[in-house]
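In response to the reviewer comment on reproducibility (Comment 2.3), we provide here a single inverse folding case reported in full, input and output, so that an independent group could reproduce the run without further information from us. The structure tokens appear first.
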């Protein structure tokens, strides 16, 4: 008898329960157990109807992702599903938690589905670079129609029980899981309701069969943001097979598509990213069992762009916020922006119409730092200079409650130094959010020298609670993300002095898959900030300085490295900039040369990887995958390339080290010399992944 799946009988109802923590994934053992129990229930003459349900926190959350890429083990999921669907006795899936991927596919092979009201149902395979490989693309359109099926399969986001009920994905919302499922089976039996096998029911496909534009329009809408990705398009094709082909042929084509994707580099990268994100939750060097401190209220200092965005993130997750400013006017402005942001989202249908008011009600806007007293976590998002930060933390010592975690949102300043201005350095850490903070998922959690383990765990836990992806990093200038970005910035600037143009550099970077190139990004951030800071420090950057001297501060002045039409954010190459660059080079006696796209890509990416290697060597990041998480969720690194360190492995570390050494010599730039760790791994024929595996094993 199976260890992970059990069959019990309650009178005439057979209950098949999967119990394979943490998420009841469909490992070979679970597949085998379901098959065995369904067969046994069918064979038992006392059983007239069957409930398939799960123990623990969730219904089956999908195939076991760790099995992908390994030799397949029987039974195949499709065979298990055929057994369920062919059962002469009704099989009802009783769903709680998240029925995802293969889990929903199991439920779709059942004749009926019921769920508790908190349940979520979805086919998120595209997020792993896959398409549903066990009939999901064929059965879901038959259950809910091709339009919603495309939305769920190509978009990958789950729907709630209410929407599932409205669209015929489930029959009923039940109160208690076990009793609800069982009662539903008894009702079916009493009513002698015929079995509904989705494979045989084409009724919801009729409209799209008659008018294919219903399907193609849905696909066009859902693939708008899928640039560079393979899976959403393959998944859409697979839904098309449901409309165009008989069920069995569609199933076969779906399987072919799935097998192709599972072996693709993109899916490997996306699966890696899935586990990297989860690995980042495990904090190195913290005693096992360390509990987070309770956080019932958060105080945020500063209602500017960052403070406001951070406050919104907490309110979005239902956490009450005290938002603190130094004056009424700044506070009013900050509160107004948040309200407007939420109202715009509600107008687009992104959140319910009553959400803006509810979320605003969670934010208590006040003037004066002395109001931090009831907060369990204080996040400072004030002006970015050490003197101001120290003053603020000094005051926090006086006003914050004992044991409150005191976080700075600085993007590069030394947290150890900030911590010195309090008498409780053990409570101080960094929580570096990325702009716009209510949208970007990354939160770099900066562990300072004296940060207490439970303070660190608190920050990671609360970051997850507000749907951020935390990555724990150490103290250094710019932490992980901005420190690596600085290397790219340095090279992009140098490339202009050698003959490349901003639009050429940016085009290479966006073609690689980044959302924006370095120059468009500078225009967005504003060129004047760097200009002023260079002036203060007596540093020159001839081209950037010349742009600022000409009043070109970036998007906000309608021109920077590019020009912008009124009201547009689209960067347009500007001949004036080309002229300005030419004149600057002439003045400096620099010779232009043709810079190839290949060189641009190498000089944009390899110095970042080199810096990543230094970051690992110094222990600023505990794992290469933590660096990848930073880039995936803070900078829009294309998920299908896994992150810079993962990508570096695929390029080959020896090649990268050799090219860096070459450019160091060619461009007379010692900062490009390969880092000792990179050199060592390259010489030993190793990868960052092998380094991570070695340190995990140690
Ligand atoms: C698929 O189904 C293909 C089929 O169409 C075709 C087949 C032929 N496998 O996220 P958490 C682990 S593709 C293996 O922290 P939460 C996870 O690594 C799959 N392991 O919890 C972690 O381990 P650890 C389609 C898995 O409560 C632990 O479980 N399904 C899997 O925040 C807890 O995870 C998906 O894409 C898995 N499928 O969120 C769903 N799932 O503790 C993927 C989780 O050692 N999963 N683990 O770090 C999720 O989205 C979330 O895990 C879930 C729970 C929402 C379920």
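Designed residues, in position order:
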């Amino acid at each position: 008898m199976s260890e992970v799946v059990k069959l019990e009988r309650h009178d005439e109802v057979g209950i098949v329960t999967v119990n394979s923590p943490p998420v009841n994934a469909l490992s070979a053992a679970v597949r085998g157990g379901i098959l065995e129990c369904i067969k046994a229930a069918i064979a038992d003459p006392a059983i007239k109807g069957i409930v398939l349900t799960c123990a623990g926190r969730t219904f089956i959350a999908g195939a076991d992702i760790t099995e992908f890429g390994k030799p397949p083990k029987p039974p195949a999921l499709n065979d298990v599903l055929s057994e369920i669907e062919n059962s002469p006795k009704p099989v009802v899936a009783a769903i709680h938690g998240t029925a995802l991927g293969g889990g929903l596919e199991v439920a779709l092979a059942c004749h009926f589905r019921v769920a508790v009201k908190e349940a979520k149902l979805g086919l998120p395979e595209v997020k792993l670079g896959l398409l549903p490989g066990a009939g999901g693309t064929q059965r879901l359109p038959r259950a809910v129609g091709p339009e919603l099926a495309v939305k769920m399969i190509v978009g990958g986001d789950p729907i709630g029980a209410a929407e599932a009920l409205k669209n015929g994905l489930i029959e009923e919302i039940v109160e208690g899981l076990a009793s609800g499922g069982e009662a539903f089976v008894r009702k079916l039996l009493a009513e002698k309701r015929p079995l509904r096998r989705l494979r045989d029911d084409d009724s919801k496909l009729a409209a799209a069969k008659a008018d294919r534009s219903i399907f193609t329009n849905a696909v066009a809408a859902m693939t708008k943001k899928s640039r560079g990705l393979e899976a959403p398009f393959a998944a859409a094709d697979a839904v098309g097979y449901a409309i165009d082909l008989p069920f069995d042929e569609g199933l076969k084509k779906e399987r072919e598509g799935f097998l192709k994707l599972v072996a693709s580099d993109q899916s490997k990268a996306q699966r890696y990213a899935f586990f990297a994100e989860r690995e980042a939750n495990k904090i190195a060097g913290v005693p096992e069992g360390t509990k987070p401190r309770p956080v019932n209220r958060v105080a945020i200092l500063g209602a500017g762009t960052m403070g406001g965005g951070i406050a919104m993130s907490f309110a979005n997750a239902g956490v009450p916020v005290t938002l603190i400013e130094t004056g009424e006017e700044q506070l009013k402005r900050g509160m107004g922006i948040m309200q407007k942001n939420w109202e715009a989202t509600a107008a687009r249908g992104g959140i319910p119409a009553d959400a803006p008011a509810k979320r605003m009600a969670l934010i208590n806007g006040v003037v004066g730092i002395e109001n931090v007293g009831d907060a369990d976590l204080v996040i400072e998002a004030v002006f970015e200079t050490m003197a101001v930060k120290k003053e603020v933390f000094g005051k926090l010592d006086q006003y914050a409650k004992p044991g409150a975690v005191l976080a700075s949102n600085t993007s590069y300043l030394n947290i150890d130094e900030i911590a010195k201005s309090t008498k409780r350095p053990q409570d101080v850490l960094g929580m570096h959010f990325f702009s716009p903070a209510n949208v970007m998922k990354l939160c770099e959690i900066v562990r300072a020298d004296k940060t207490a383990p439970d303070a660190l765990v608190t920050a990671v836990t609360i970051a997850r609670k507000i749907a951020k992806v935390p990555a724990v990093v150490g103290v250094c200038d710019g932490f992980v993300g901005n420190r690596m970005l600085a290397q790219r910035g340095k090279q992009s600037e140098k490339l202009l002095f050698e003959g490349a143009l901003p639009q050429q550099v940016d085009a290479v970077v966006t073609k690689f898959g980044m959302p924006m190139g370095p120059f468009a990004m500078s225009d967005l951030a504003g060129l004047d900030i760097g200009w002023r800071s260079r002036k203060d420090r007596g540093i020159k950057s001839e081209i950037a300085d010349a742009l600022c001297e000409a009043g070109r501060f970036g998007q906000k002045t309608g021109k920077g490295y590019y020009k912008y039409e009124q009201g547009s954010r689209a960067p347009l190459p500007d001949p004036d900039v080309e002229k300005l660059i030419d004149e600057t080079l002439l003045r400096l006696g620099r010779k232009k040369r043709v810079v190839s796209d290949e060189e641009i890509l190498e000089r944009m990416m390899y110095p970042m990887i080199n810096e990543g290697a230094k970051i690992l060597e110094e222990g600023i990041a505990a794992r290469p995958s933590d660096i990848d998480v930073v880039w995936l969720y803070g900078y829009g690194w294309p998920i299908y390339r896994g992150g810079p360190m993962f990508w570096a492995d695929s390029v080959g570390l020896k090649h990268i080290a050799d090219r860096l050494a070459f450019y160091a010599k060619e461009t007379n730039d010692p900062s490009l010399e390969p880092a000792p760790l990179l050199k060592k791994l390259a010489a030993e024929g190793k990868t960052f992944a092998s380094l991570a595996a070695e340190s995990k094993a140690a």
